[in-house]
Amino acid sequence: xxxxxxxxxxxxxxxxxxxxxxxxxxxxxxxxxxxxxxxxxxxxxxxxxxxxxxxxxxxxxxxxxxxxxxxxxxxxxxxxxxxxxxxxxxxxxxxxxxxxxxxxxxxxxxxxxxxxxxxxxxxxxxxxxxxxxxxxxxxxxxxxxxxxxxxxxxxxxxxxxxxxxxxxxxxxxxxxxxxxxxxxxxxxxxxxxxxxxxxxxxxxxxxxxxxxxxxxxx
Length: 218
Known about the structure:
It contains two helices and 15 strands. It folds into two domains: about 5-30 and about 90-180, no CATH class; about 40-85 and about 180-215, SH3 Domains (SH3 type barrels, Roll). The strands form four sheets. Strands 1, 2, 5, 13, 14 and 15 form a six-stranded antiparallel sheet that branches. By secondary structure, the chain is mostly beta strands. It is about 10% helix and about 40% strand.
């Protein structure tokens, strides 16, 4: 990605907000969270402990494309999962279009979202910015989002609309851009070589939902 592209996207988002909603640029930067956000994500549940490479995979000394190369795995190699991390390099941005009060709700595995005892309430005003920085999910049946508003963090069900393609004038809170997510995994190859790589479609056998390891394993 060219170095100037994130800068251009950021300023384009500001221009859209100013033209469409009359929001001043300073409001979009108010209480912007420090990124990237990184947390461990153990290989458990749906995650399987041994994967197979479906292409040549570069292992690195740290979970970054800029980190030094430690090894290269050929296609068809089985490798063991040592550690996983979930990264959010940039937050999702939600813009409040209509003032409203929202009562805390949590998504659950079965049924509609539920309201806890003594729920929190937020009074959002037109022009407020909400940053989506993480999520809590089992990867299948439910997802709650970690978001920041006014410098404070909360974890709830989503209450915004992702209507970027078909904006609705009745929308109270609109997702301007989704958070960017990356999954990194530290692997150990058959000869003991270790290093970090992206967890993507270049691997088979990652989870119950993935292609079986035999698709790529030699």
